[in-house]
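Example (one chain per record):
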Amino acid sequence: MQQSLSSALVDNFLGNSPAWYKWTIIGFLVANPLLLVTVGPFITGWILILEFIFTLAMALKCYPLQPGGLLAIQAIVLGMTTAESVYEETLHNFPVILLLMFMVAGIFFLKELLLFVFTKVLIGVRSKMLLSLLFSAMAAVLSAFLDALTVTAVIIAVAEGFYSIYHKVASGKHYDTSHDQSDDGQVEEYHREDLLQFRAFLRSLMMHAAVGTALGGVTTLVGEPQNLLIAEEAGWEFVEFFVRMAPVTMTVLVVGLLTCLLLEKLKWFSYGAKLPEAVRKVLEEYDEHMTERRTQKQKAALIVQAITAVFLVIALAFHLAEVGIIGLTVIVLATAFTGITSEHQIGHAFEEALPFTALLVVFFGIVSVIHTQHLFEPVIQAVFALDESVQGPVFYMANGILSMISDNVFVATVYISEVKSALMAGEISREHFDVLAVAINTGTNIPSVATPNGQAAFLFLLTSAVAPLLRLSYGRMVWMALPYTITMSITGLLATIYLL
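Predicted structure:
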């Protein structure tokens, strides 16, 4: 029987998403105008935030761009924000847009080198505890000087490379064969248990590394975008920023790394999965195969990628240009000298980042609603009404909670602007301003590991191509981040009370 047009329209809406999910989104879209009329824009704004978080939580059911985009468009139509405000918010975050467009694509052209290096590490280090600590510490060190999104892009590239290798072999195919790694139907029966364990192994490594980006990113002026913003308002240079943050950041770093070891030791919160011997054997054979078959041309390409990687680290560490411009330079260098010249070859590099870039602009639309409706203003006023002696720890907690649900750069911008205004008006001393600036920076960076929408790097990981392969859902990320959230947030809070 031929399908009716109305039925086809319903089927097309959000594609293959479950029917209950489609009706939930329709329910949101119907309810929002009614809520705006009955309870007003302030409460409706908070409900809109929760609806958007729902679309992120259901990312494996439907990519959040479409449902989240519908909510953002509706917010503009209802007058809860304006297209101009969304544009200004996007323009303010243009460096992040550039980073995603070009840096992630640049990392794509360093994949062979990354896979070569990390295969040696994975094969050489047999202790899961040591390997987890190594991934977390490496991510922390790199994120202190590079951008957390860049480091996350590296982690994703490595994990996807490993997964692809084993999935091909488990499906009875050769390394060089084209293969759909999302199709488990081809996996041979005796490989299925090892595949499940390998997924758990990679998930744990990726979460350790993702948290590591937060541990390192909070420590230096260039680690996170809001760090630079706060440093500019406070007038701090690189060394002064590090020293002022150190009582909190170094304490949290130690506790974070200890948490990593403890989780692997106790195998709590879905950690502790080890690399199956069958998978290790496949990776060893792959490494041997690639070493034996590697041509002079491929060796030359690896050398060029290594030189480009060194340039990348130096350029980011010394901030020779905006991160996105450095990423574009990496694309040019890594392709011009490795024989990649066709538009088709280059186009693949942008497939991973551009959907997330579009999603991030939708997210800025939601942030614009927060800004237009002054949703965070009551919190700011309540904190300033408290006694000065407790404002530091309360600022830390308030920033942390708000950063779990919103863009931590936006939260930092709002809070540091208010604190700077209070300083300029003579309402607070310079010493107290410095304490609050540290509390704001650490608050927006540390507790925000609780949710994928708290950190751009976490959100990028959640919406990446590797997340569904590893069954890394929103809920699972929140669960696996929970012990880190507890230990790191409490440590940061205690440090703001007793060490600042």
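Caption: Residues 14-80 form one domain.
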